[in-house]
Amino acid sequence: MSDCTSASAVQLAATAVVSAAVAAGAILSYQRLQHGERLTRLKRSIPNPADDEPSVQNLHRVGPLPKPDKEDEHNFLLAQRAQAGDFDDELILEQLARNRVFLGDEGLTKLRNAFVVIVGCGGVGSHACAALSRSGVSKIRLIDFDQVTLSSLNRHAVATLADVGIPKVQCLQRRLCAITPWTKFDLRLQKFDGKAAEDLLASWEHGEAGQKPDFVIDAIDNIESKVELLKYCHDHGLPVISAMGAGTKSDPTRVMVGDIGTSFEDGLSRATRRKLKLLGVTSGIPVVYSTEKMGEGKAALLPLSEAEFAKGSVGDLGPLPDFRVRILPVLGTMPAVFGYVVANHVILKITGYPMDYQPAKARDKMYEAILAYVQAVEEKVLRSREGGRTDVCLGLKVPITPGDIAFLVEEAFSGRSAVTGIPTKLMLIRWKKPTETTLVRIGEGKDEQKSARLRLRDLVCMTKEEAVRHQKEVLLGDKTLEEVYSPEVIELVEARQKLAAAYERHRP
């Protein structure tokens, strides 16, 4: 009897499990169906850029607006009239009244006459653009290759569902002309790179005599393009401010403005700074960055999983074929904070309003002193290899620049001695004793050029006292690295040298 009861209980339990599974499957199927229907309805409700319907022509380089409504038509006609001068200036001054009393008449006039270029019109760039337009800037060039997507709407300043699928530059003009119709927009639907820099950052030529940009805003999240933009601005004397990584950040109180050479706790800033230093740019570029530290439970930048790449067609997930597809967690409020800080800096600079930012560290003289030390040690090492001859060192040059020194000290070795971790009185010195001559000769007689065979990866960061001992015992003496240093120090140096080697390829 007990066996029958037990069998019945098992059968009943099995039936319950199967029924639950069937019910769960039905619920999940229904939810997926409902989700699919909602998504389809949403997509249908969004204007299709391919629809061939009557359009309102944009004022500059981007094509017609897809499916404009009556409000769009009204706003564009008003903007055309305002930009042609048919708009009461008293109304403009009334709209800008709060800025006027803050900045004064002279400051507001400077702002109204300003020409600003914004490169990157996503979360950061869109908020910067909206703030500058509302503050009175009359000429804005927008540069971006991307379109508004559904995922853009959590952080874009002005985009709506109706803007999904159109270029971001066009979206900004479409929405802001309804707020400040007198603002003239120059739209450039293209990706910034060094080859196009001269054209993209050229003077404003829409009716006015060529006016150079009063400021350039870097809101790019691609490192290579960012470095090319900042290098071009630095070399051509264009005022620029760069927004660093807002992704994965959550604390608005940690956002600040500082020099590119002093920013910290920011991955994008660190990578940008390293490459700029290798190009000879060590300071002089203001950046907006966050000092927030990452920690357990906080969002982190993740690459797309290899499993997803194995499925193929991952290029569909990125804006361009050569862009690495990433999963970038972004809290929608943080790009806005970055964008407004950027715009605030530009407004203060253009109008001449007093600024009290924390000054950058004056380390250029330190880099020059370290470079002189490297030169002196290389001459001693060469004389030692050449039997004490002094003539071999006459006119000797080392293929190292102050930018290289800055990169090695600050980035590769994090501003500390590799031997003890001490951050003061730092020097760079060759790590291994050469097994052959370091002299490189090119030409003859008065046209001869002498240089030392020296790479970034050959140098190590130490305090001056440690470098003196290293020179005496290793470079000019007979001791091996293993006799002087612990395995931990040797391992650390080798790791830092690999980092230097990896970045060395970015040198011009």
From TrEMBL:
Entries under SUPFAM superfamilies matching the protein: Activating enzymes of the ubiquitin-like proteins
Keywords in alphabetical order, please.
Answer: ATP-binding, Ligase, Membrane, Mitochondrion, Mitochondrion outer membrane, Nucleotide-binding, Transmembrane, Transmembrane helix
- State the residue spans of region: Disordered: 45-71
- Name the chain's protein: THIF-type NAD/FAD binding fold domain-containing protein
Q: Which residues form a coiled coil?
A: none
The record describes its membrane topology as: Multi-pass membrane protein
User: What highest taxon heads this organism's lineage?
Assistant: Eukaryota
All copies of the THIF-type NAD/FAD binding fold domain together span 98-357
CDD domains tied to this protein: YgdL_like
- Which Pfam families does the entry mention? ThiF (PF00899)
What GO biological process term is on the record, naming one? cyclic threonylcarbamoyladenosine biosynthetic process
Family annotation (Gene3D superfamilies): NAD(P)-binding Rossmann-like Domain
The organism encoding this protein is: Cladorrhinum samala
One cellular component term from this protein's GO annotations in UniProt? mitochondrial outer membrane
- Return one GO MF term: ubiquitin-like modifier activating enzyme activity
The family this protein is said to belong to: Belongs to the HesA/MoeB/ThiF family.
